[in-house]
Amino acid sequence: MVIDRKRRIFRPAGLTLGRPTRAALLTAAAGALVFVGGAWLGLRPSEAPASGTPPGRLSAEPGQVRVIDGTTLMLHDRAVQLAGLRTAERGTACGGAAGGASGAVFDCGVAAANALADRVRGAAIDCVLLGGGQSGRPLAHCSAAGAAIAPALVASGWARVSGSAGNDARDEALAEAERRAQAAHLGLWAGAR
Predict the structure, then answer these.
(1) Amino acid 121: pLDDT
(2) Of residues 50 and 33, more confidently modeled
(3) Among residues 177, 73, 165, which one has the least CA distance to residue 119?
(4) pLDDT in tens, 136-151
(5) For the domain that residue 166 is a member of, what is the CATH number?
(6) Which terminal Cβ of the chain has fewer Cβ within 10 Å, N or C?
(7) Alpha helices in the chain (DSSP H)
(8) Is 167 helix (H, G, I), strand (E, B) or coil?
(9) How far apart are CA 39 and CA 19, in angstroms?
(10) Contact indicator for 87, 110 with CB cutoff of 8 Å
(11) pLDDT by residue (tens digit) across 158-173?
(12) Are 92 and 12 in contact (CB under 8 A)?
């Protein structure tokens, strides 16, 4: 048996370039879109808030204000925390046998948030931003319809003074309001006798 054909051993196939397939074109287009989109995201300015909010003002009309907790307001889509105040968290029990006229136990955090909501309801809010707080939210001195919010919350017993509110006279006035609220067993001190 004679074989006429030449044997090809280890001969590389020739490189041929033909028309690209539809799948190759779609893959190249998708890759280009991903590259351009990534470059755009990397080069555009960030919309994230700065870690230390610079001082300034923030105002909102009544329909643009929400209460987050006893010391935090949401103005438009931005949360601000009332400077120099702290209050009970939701789920903290207050009152008891010696508390108030009824002696009922209630949720201090919810009651503090409700007190803040009553204070800002139907009022235009204006805040002077002081910078970033420990919670990551900007600290602010806020007023509702021109009246400062913090002194009213402290005087009614729904907030406590926490550190410095920005100046000595304001800090002392808040501390005195807190002492009077505690002595009168108001708000957070309703059960303390």
Answers:
(1) 92
(2) 33
(3) 73
(4) 788 889 999 999 998 9
(5) 2.40.50.90
(6) N
(7) 22-43, 108-120, 149-155, 168-183
(8) coil
(9) 30
(10) no
(11) 988 886 555 667 778 8
(12) no
The rounded Cα 174 to chain-centroid distance in angstroms is: 25
Q: How far, in Å, CA of 38 to CA of 153, rounded?
A: 48
User: Does a structural domain hold residue 7?
Assistant: no
Q: CA nearest 153: which of 178, 128, 130?
A: 178
Supply the pLDDT for residue 125. Answer: 92
Burial level of 90, CB count in 10 A (0-12/13-18/19+)?
A: middle
The total of structural domains in the chain comes to: 1
- For strands 147-148 and 85-86, give the pairing: unpaired
Domain residues for 170? 56-189
Distance CA(52)–CA(55), nearest Å, equals 9
Task: Using DSSP, state whether 25 is helix, strand or coil.
Answer: helix
Mapped onto helix, strand or coil, the DSSP state of residue 157 is: coil
